[in-house]
């Protein structure tokens, strides 16, 4: 049959066509009138790695046609072509299984000449690690061995069971056509074996490429006896589904059998030896399990030997499957509280249980209020804080999950009265959102000064200003913790508490920024007095949310508005008073102030314009002040009835000279005091 196909068809399409048209090359050759034939030297069954020569002969050499060979779809070109026969060399050919097709290719069409299959193989390796086993009750001995590398061809094993002197008792034959590591095991009937006599087993493996003989395996029946295969009769999951107890049985009468368990979680995975502990002769505990997992268990027994603990093991038992149940939380919740002020209502806070500690979901939180007659209140799974009236003196909380309830955690409400540790300087961590808090106890005794049994620390942090509060429980063995989730440019008040069975210590607090930023703006500024060459200024503290860092210093900028346009700047410490006398140039000034943090200087605040007060203005103010004062005194004296008249007379009679005269002794009177004030003030203006 001819296949005429365009040369530009892809090779895949080409092969599909061949397959479709000739179901096999054999079929083609037997039923079709072929154009020629193909031969392989040394043979189509070859030793892997040999050099093969393929000859393709066509009956008729047509002009313009060329013979070519496709090996597994790849084209090989001929080395020689004589008298219508092309020769192809396949050097060091290693493909165990391949098909070859010889084709006659013309400019527009190709024709199949012949084809065939090539089969490569290797001689068998020496059979190794022969193991023969039986149990006390078994009628057979089962022997197996390792065959070594894959031969790719069927291999036969001749197994000779001999007496020790070499006389053959039986010859067994096993065909191995499998690709697996071990050939099918050999079954020897116990009937042919006598006790207390030594035997030898010799295995000869052979295939077309060669043969290989094992070392003799010498044995005595009693050496082959292993414990009976046990049977798992029951699995019971316990200990919050982290462990299971396997009950097993065996027909073995031997005492002191120990057992091993292996397990896998799905069929595809490999077996892993489980952490196990024998409870007694019929029970083993397997630990390290996970909740809500499907397990498959197998076990075996063994006779413990002093040095080689697993030498005489039974076969693995049949599998037993079981699903571990879910696990309820075993740890108490982390709880905390805040008060607005001492004695006020309490806000109770808690954290959800750690996901590793339970399976399923949190359904609710249950709060127990009061000491004896406990009142129980339920909260939804999303709650994490609730207010509680101040009268309640005992509060505890537990989480209810789908698989159980956590132990109750008591909220520490009282003050321990003891000493707590002291926070050290808080160090911003590498990221701009975290701070490392560490603490020391003032003496070496640590918790002993805190009063009560040590429980843990609580680190709490609040934004300043504002009431955004977060907290975290820290183990009593730690002396530092990383506070994360902070925002740059926000001031936090970090407080540390030591919690003991007696209550909560007084806090140790520090202010911190995870990362300082430049202030948002400059402080508001006012000019109090502006003299000719001095100016007295005062400014407000920046609101904390505008500081965005600790203010290190302020910078005052002065600028004259006249033609000289003199500019001056003065730096003032951030912690000093916010009021200042500054020397300045004469004339109208523009004053501005900026604040700086360690991150840099912020935007300056509003510009203030200020003119020095002129001396004339000062004089006018002075005169107005004196006149006002004088009128006030006069009015005051008029009202004082006893002396009013005399004063009036004296003023008239003394005239301007009244100032030099001593006034009558009138004791500690208003008039005397007022006159004394006038006496001291008048020279200033006259
Ligand atoms: C196969 O041919 C190569 C090159 O011609 C040669 O080096 C090699 O020895 C040959 N192998 C065998 C097994 O004859
Ligand atoms: C090729 O054919 C010619 C004549 O038909 C013959 O003389 C020659 O020996 C052949 N060559 C081979 C290598 O068979
Ligand atoms: C290899 O063994 C299989 C199964 O026993 C058999 O079908 C096949 O024909 C054998 N192959 C050879 C080359 O003997
Ligand atoms: C294997 O045993 C058979 C007889 O069962 C025998 O014909 C054959 O020669 C033996 N082969 C080898 C390699 O011993
Ligand atoms: C090997 O031992 C068996 C029995 O012990 C005996 O019958 C046989 O003759 C002995 N063969 C040789 C070669 O000694
Ligand atoms: C293995 O254990 C069995 C008991 O189950 C014992 O009879 C046999 O001798 C032991 N085999 C070896 C090799 O220790
Ligand atoms: C339960 O499991 C935990 C963790 O695996 C273990 O520490 C504890 O001892 C176990 N308890 C019992 C009674 O086995
Ligand atoms: C093994 O222990 C379990 C309980 O721990 C007990 O019920 C059982 O009877 C014991 N079995 C043997 C053989 O001692
Ligand atoms: C404390 O709680 C009670 C009841 O929950 C409420 O009536 C009272 O106003 C609260 N007091 C304060 C100061 O919030
Ligand atoms: C924290 O504890 C470690 C050892 O536990 C110690 O080396 C370190 O000095 C302690 N740091 C402080 C701040 O006390
Ligand atoms: C920081 O928090 C502590 C404890 O709540 C409080 O006593 C202290 O006044 C706070 N400091 C500032 C500056 O807010
Ligand atoms: C400055 O004063 C104005 C008006 O009194 C006020 O709105 C503004 O917040 C103040 N700015 C600063 C930084 O204090």
UniProtKB/TrEMBL annotation:
Its taxonomic path starts at:
Eukaryota, Metazoa, Chordata, Craniata, Vertebrata
Q: Which Gene3D superfamilies match?
A: Immunoglobulins
Report the subcellular localization. Membrane
Stretches of Polar residues bias are at 308-317
Residue intervals passing through the bilayer? 616-640
Membrane topology recorded in Swiss-Prot or TrEMBL: Single-pass type I membrane protein
Q: What is this protein called?
A: Interleukin-23 receptor
**Pfam families tied to this protein:** fn3
Give the UniProt keywords, A-Z: Glycoprotein, Membrane, Receptor, Repeat, Signal, Transmembrane, Transmembrane helix
